[in-house]
Structures are given as C-alpha cells and as structure tokens.
C-alpha cells in the first residue's frame, strides 16, 4: 500500500506553503495532492490558492514526489484549457502528475461562474463528456469535437504528456455511470467511502460500503473486459465515521489502514494537519505515521 497526503492550498507559498510540499517529499509520501476548488467549505472566507499554480510551484521544489489534484471537476474547468495546463505541468514536473477527476458537487464552485447548480443527472452527463474529451486532448496532437456541453476546434496539444500515452486519471466515482468511466478511462479509482455514513454510521459499515463499491467497480471493469487489478484504488480519508481517529497514533492508523488494504485499497491519502479545523491532528504523530505505518502494513 502507498501512503500519500493532501495539502490544502491555504498557506501563502513563502509563509509555509513551500515548506509543506518539501516536507511531504522528505517524509517519503508516495504523492501529495491538493483540492481543485475556488473556495471550499469552512475555508471559504480565508486564504485559498489555485490548485494548478500550486502544483507547478511544488514541482519546482520537489524531485520524486508525485503531484496531483484530488479532484478536478467540470464545475469551472473546460477540457481544452485544462489539457494545455496539464501538459505544461507534466512537463515541468518531469512526468509526476496524476489528475484526480470527479463529477463535482453542489458547493460554492457549482455557482461561482453565475450559473444555476446542475442537477445530479446533468453533472453525470457533463462528467462523462468532460473525461472523454480530456482523454482525446491529452493523447492526440489535434482535436475537433462538438458535444452536448463541450466543443473543441482544431485544439493543439503538442508535444503531449511526458507520461505516455497521457498522464494517469484517478477517477472519483461511486455510482454506476461514474464507475464505468473509471473502468474505461482510469488508471486509478478514488473513493471517500459512503458520505451517508459520515454522521451516524459505524467503522464496520464504512468498510462494508467500500467493499460494495469495489464490487461494483469490478463489475464495470468486467463489462469491458478489463481486469480490475489494473486500476489502483485510492481512498481519501477523513470522510468516514472514523473521522480523525486514525491519526491519533501509529497503531490506530495501522488498524484503520489494514481493514481497507484487505479490501484491495492500494493507496491511502491523509490530510496534512491544519490546526483549529476538521483536519486538526498532532503534527509529530502525523509524521510518525508517514515514516513508520506503511512498513507495519507489510
């Protein structure tokens, strides 16, 4: 199992931002991700920086750490401009970028451009077209496309990605349509567990829910003749009934991680601690987990 971290883009680069990304590499994390939102939840009225510029800066001060979004969505992105930025980021980083991509939700990003929030069905429709067109743009030199939601006219993306045939997609999905997208286009699949269990569910129910999600992902892969083992399976932690308890000690984390590793999860992502927030945790314990926990998982 790989262990990665998620660094919220809340710190000015020269006032702690850069240091976190460098420390993530020093601690041996497999990857460091950041959220691709324009504002988010309780952090809305405080500092919040753009995901792709942050990742570009992180690429310049790290050498081995994989970098990525967790996740990018169609809410305020267009495949044509996003593809150009991703190709540039993949080049700058020397081929260390993973694109986490999801359908988006109904939060602040859904209406920030002045539009009405899309229905769940429209979000799913847009997501399917978004991922399909982005796949084309990142693998072909020139693309023209006219869809229901997105268009491209002779879009050029030369020389393409450093990673071939393109940088990997980590597709966040739990519904059947999204899981089919993950099966078709993903090099990885992302889950946060079952959000319906967050308030009143149990740890055991959460494990069973993720087991069910992996079962449906397996079925989606089988439909197109793909082995589900070909996909990495990433779990972004912090949104299950366990909340922050797995970060209370190395033993607590190993117990938590072991239950999901047994299901087939291949990468766990833990939030970098932020004091006085939902992601508050002891920094020393967090760093001890980063350096000691994976070895204990075998």
3D structure, described in words:
- With 298 residues, the chain is an alpha/beta fold.
- The chain is 38% helix and 17% strand.
- The protein has eight helices and ten strands.
- It has helices at 17-26, 51-61, 79-93, 120-139, 176-185, 203-223, 250-261, 283-297; strands at residues 2-6, 31-34, 66-72, 97-101, 142-146, 151-156, 169-172, 188-191, 232-236, 267-271.
- The strands form two sheets. Strands 1-2-3-4-7-8-9-10 form an eight-stranded parallel barrel, surrounded by four helices. The protein has a two-stranded antiparallel sheet with strand order 5-6.
- Strand 9, helix 7 (250-261) and strand 10 form a beta-alpha-beta unit.
- The longest helix is centred in the C-terminal third of the chain and has 21 residues, at 203-223.
- It starts with a strand and ends with a helix.
- 40% of the residues are buried.
- The mean pLDDT is 97.
């Amino acid at each position: 199992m790989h262990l990665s971290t998620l660094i919220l883009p809340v710190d000015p680069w020269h006032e702690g931002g850069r240091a976190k990304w460098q420390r993530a590499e020093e601690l041996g994390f497999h990857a460091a991700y950041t959220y691709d939102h324009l504002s988010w939840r309780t952090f809305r009225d405080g500092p919040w920086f753009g995901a792709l510029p942050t990742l570009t800066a992180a690429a310049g001060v790290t050498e081995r750490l994989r970098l990525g979004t967790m996740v990018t969505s169609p809410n305020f992105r267009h495949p044509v401009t996003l593809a150009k930025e991703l190709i540039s980021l993949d080049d700058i980083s020397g081929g260390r970028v993973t694109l986490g991509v999801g359908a988006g939700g109904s939060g602040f990003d859904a209406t920030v451009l002045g539009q009405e929030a899309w229905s769940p069905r429209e979000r799913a429709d847009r997501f399917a077209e978004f991922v399909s067109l982005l796949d084309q743009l990142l693998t072909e030199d020139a693309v023209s496309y006219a869809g229901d939601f997105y268009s491209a006219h002779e879009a050029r993306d030369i020389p393409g990605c450093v990673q071939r045939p393109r940088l990997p997609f980590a597709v966040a999905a739990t519904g059947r349509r999204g899981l089919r997208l993950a099966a078709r286009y993903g090099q990885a699949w992302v889950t946060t567990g079952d959000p319906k269990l967050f308030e009143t569910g149990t740890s055991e129910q959460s494990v069973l829910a993720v087991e069910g999600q992996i079962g449906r992902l397996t079925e989606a892969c089988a439909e197109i003749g793909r082995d589900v083992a070909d996909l990495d399976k990433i779990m972004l932690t912090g949104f299950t009934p366990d909340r922050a308890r797995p970060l209370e000690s190395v033993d607590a984390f190993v117990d938590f991680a072991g239950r999901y590793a047994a299901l087939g999860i291949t990468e766990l992502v833990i939030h970098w601690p932020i004091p006085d927030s939902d992601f508050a945790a002891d920094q020393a314990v967090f760093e001890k987990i980063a350096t000691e926990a994976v070895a204990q998982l075998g």
